[in-house]
Amino acid sequence: MLLIFSIVLFNIHFVYSDANMNVSVKAQKHDKVKLKIIFVGKPQKKIKKIASILKNDLEFSGQFEVILPDTFYPALKSKNDVTSLFSDDCRIGIFLSQDKGKKKICWRLYDLEYASMISGLAYKQKGKDLRGWAHNIADTIWPVLTNEPGFFSTKISYCKEVKRSGKKSYKHIYVSDYDGSNEKLLVSTPTINVVPRWNNDLSNPLVFYSEHTNENVRLVVVDMNKKRKIVSNFDGLNILSTFSPDGKKFAYCASRGDGFCQIYYYADGKLKKITNKGNNFSPTFTDNGEQLYFCSDALNGRPQIYKYDLTTQSSEKISKGGFNVSTSFSSKKKLLAYSRMVRGTMQIFTYDPRTKLSKQVTFGKGNKEECSWSPCGNYLLFSLERGTKSRVAMLHLLTGRQHFVTSCKDNNYYPAWSPIYAEFPSVR
Amino acid sequence: MLPWLHKSTRKRLIFWGKLFIFSLSTHVVGLVFIFFVYRGENFSYNVSINRSITKFGAPIILLPLAKTTGTNLNKLINVNKQITKNVKTKSKKVLSKKNIKPKKTTTISKTKKKKTVSKRSKKNKVSKKESTKKKIEQKKNKKKKVVKKNKKQNKNPVKKKSKIEKSKKVVQPGKIVKKKVVASKKAVVPAVAKPVEPQPIYVGRQELAALQMQAEIEQEVLKHWSPPAGLSKELTCSIKVLVGWDGNIKNSVIQKTSGVLIYDISARTAVSKLNMPKGARGKEINILFNQ
Predict the structure, then answer these.
(1) Taking residues A218-222, what's their average pLDDT?
(2) Which residue has the higher pLDDT, A289 or B7?
(3) What is the mean pLDDT of residues A358-380?
(4) How far B251 CA sits from the closest chain A CA (Å)?
(5) Domain membership flag for residue A425
(6) Rounded to 5 degrees, what angle do the CA atoms A109, A115, A120 make?
């Protein structure tokens, strides 16, 4: 008896011994997280369209695999109804439905295993573009999933070469969604239109671009209704406009007929020249709008990056030699992106003003120039030139994944990423 | 006659009583041994193995008779890490110093570098020449003198600095190098620096078993865990799991969230797929998922 008792005691002791283990593991491979979009309510084509755009948005970064079933669930009444959708591979689901008034689209993010709601929102439809609604919804879901700001409601603009038989080609300004889809022609004047840039007035999306005329290259602004207006019409070049993040300050380059391009800064109704020597171009404001980065070849004919302080009116050289062009500042990440020549090829670098260190972010063949940041600061848009072809490409800085945004059939230049406007900009 | 066949009931009872007391006492002794000396399998595994401990070149010595060595393995591993790091950095420094041009050495820190370079070259020469004991003794005396000199210099560092500054001001850089070389000759220490070897790791039976089991668990977790790409590298998620007797996870609780939903979800997905090794069954395990 005692022997049996001792054996039992021993086993109990063994089983309930407080042997806690700590195991620490580091990821060695990456995979997509699976996510379900579930329709609730009466079958509707509109909801299906929104779901398919939402699927594309969420899958764009390469972090998600979205499962989109065709079935509509009339109603999910109990927890069991939700948990029945759970599988080991797919633990989260987005329930999409439309309210009775059909003016709001509701989404609810659920943990399917425990049937608990993580987050939800009734989105009020802004504007008339269904694509815009879907992108807006994606922008509200994205921060919940990844803790990063969304960027799906943005647009990109670029110029496209339009070839004419036996004659010089034109360049037209196009606008598309952030991923290159839904391309729309914005400016189609029979001339060369280059360097489109978005303004930062979030309630009124405008595109500033430069138009070649017989006399000069003038700066023109166009709204989403294709209404155009001349902004600067000095002799020579009027190009490369840029806005401060608050949208109140403006800078651009103008040569005013003397052959040298200078930077002009506009604020409080006054236009002020801030450079004097050499060619100065690609101005870009910092996050607080107090400094301006730009390129200048005044020193030795090779363009270098400078920082101009608008309060102290002093400039500081940032780059140390080389050939540096097309600066662009991200107010979200507080990083400067620029192109630099590396062994005869232009590559994109990022410069951190806090550490004063530069880092090369693109490699491989082809000249990468005219970079533009996404509003979230995780993507860089640039033109990639290989041989006679030029395409707009995008780089995801977190994954290092690079892909083309525009078609291989066309030549596209000067991409620019818009901020997130209050209403999704759609060209009419 | 056999005692349990004794005719007298009294004697028979005494015999059974003695037998009972004997068995009781042996059981008591046995139980005391089990619970207070042997202590069953009651030990905590606190060795986390992110990397193989053999990576640092430390010899691992198994002590088959000992259960635990009482030493903190984590500490030992960290010590060995530091040693290997130091060795690497030293070797890198030496390599870089060999490439340094003498004219560039103008600062105080660089003079030190020069000294080490000359030490090496001197060491090689000395090792060839060192054939007799007298020379060694002479050098030892020299070394003592140098040490004394250094001590004196350390005592009044202001003077030393001022001297260096003076030399900077007055003498041309080329000449400074020459002086430094002379100084390094004085500072040559013939005593051969012992190569720092990583400390051997003594492992008891239980510790070895724990290490093996942890390695198995780690492999099992890595097999199933693949977070999405493009997330911050500083993310960590800690999940406490209870392993069932079949090796599957009975219960899991997120102890510390990463703050990013998809990261936590990927960790939970991995946990649900785990099939733990035999040794981990019936135990609670804290799994820390690092990006």
Answers:
(1) 96
(2) A289
(3) 94
(4) 13
(5) no
(6) 25
Minimal C-alpha gap between A393 and chain B (Å): 18
Provide the CATH number for the domain around residue A348.
2.120.10.30
The answer to whether residues B236 and B290 touch, using CB atoms and an 8 Å cutoff, is yes
Residue A197 lies inside a defined structural domain of this protein = yes
ipTM for the complex? 0.87
Contact between B40 and A146 using a beta-carbon 8 Å cutoff? no
Domain that holds residue A139: 2-146
Q: Average pLDDT for residues A389-418, to the nearest whole number?
A: 93
A216 and A126 share one domain: no
A335-347: pLDDT as tens digits: 999 999 999 999 9
Q: What is the mean pLDDT of residues A12-26?
A: 66
Of all residues in chain A, the one with the smallest CA distance to B285 is: A21
Report the C-alpha gap between A226 and A39 in whole angstroms: 37
Nearest to B44 among A13, A19, A24 (CB): A19
Choose between A15 and A281: higher pLDDT: A281
In chain A, which residue's Cα lies nearest the Cα of B226?
A: A30
The CA-atom distances, in angstroms, between A173 and each of A19, A194, A211, A225, B223 are 68, 7, 10, 14, 50
Q: Which residues neighbour A25 within 8 Å (Cβ) at sequence distance 6 or greater?
A: B50, B218, B221, B222, B225, B287, B288, B289, B290
Inform me whether the pLDDT recorded for A89 exceeds 70.
Answer: yes
Strand order in the sheet with A324-330: A324-330, A335-342, A345-352, A357-360
**Of B30, B43, B225, which has the smallest distance from its Cβ to A6's Cβ?**
B30
